[in-house]
Amino acid sequence: MTLSDTASGGPANFDRAAEERTTTDLTEARTDASVRVLVVAGDAAPLSAPDRLLWVPPSDVPDDATWAFLGRSGEGERLLLAALPAAESDVFPAPAGWASLRTAAPALSSEEAGAFVAGLSLSRWLLDSPFCAACGTRCDIRDAGWSRRCPACGRQHFPRTDPAVIVAITSAADPDALLLGSNVLWGPDRFSCFAGFAEAGESLESAVHREVLEESGVAVTDVRYRGSQAWPFPRSLMVGFLATAVDDAAARADGEEIATLRWFSRAEIGAGLAGESALRLPGPASISHRLISDWYAGNA
Known about the structure:
Layout: H1 5-8, H2 26-29, E1 36-41, E2 44-49, E3 52-53, E4 66-72, E5 78-84, E6 98-100, H3 101-104, H4 110-128, E7 140-142, E8 147-149, E9 156-157, E10 162-170, E11 177-183, E12 194-197, H5 204-216, E13 220-231, E14 236-245, E15 258-265, H6 266-273, H7 287-297
């Protein structure tokens, strides 16, 4: 059993329509009133309601946006992305205001959450990486926003995705205990799973063993894949695992990334998920929340 589509960022109906990227004319699409556009300014997008993105016609988009073909809706509408830098105030009025992905995602449908994730990920790349990494020349946008080509050296560039592992650790001795850690940048009552980026030439499974040992001092066994989630902060693919500690007593915080860690009982996790204790667990938009809640429910 793996994580649900909603938790893993896999939308049920949002269609990337990748085969249309080489044929889509963005200039033509921007004049088509039937096209719907997701405007992303920094990390925020407009909402038509607390649980709905606001899709606008191309004519409502500011002139300085960077454009891309996003895909098609479940109803077949063409969807475009208009990427803008972060703004001090709302780019234009929205009925339910503007919200970040972290804030909006828990209430959005799987289709719209998937579109927001794709749009934010692509927007960051379009705005942050306009120059060739090899020679420094400004690149031309190709494939309707999904690639770049350097006019000087001919290099092709694509949006970068960095794989990272995220791991919930179960006890070797107690089936009702889960090990969580608190990052040095967080408050004392906030705990989550252990996570880190895969290094060059490293498998995901090796990254699990290394990251968990580095951060918690725990060697693990029985590493099980649970699902994945695109997470554009900054450009990650979070790959979720469940693993079992070899020796519970070996647990200790590294003091660099993890300030403190502890074993939590199933009852403590349940109270934290329900908001009935001081324990602060990850929000429902994150794969870490699903790893913890699935373990709590006995679905891991």
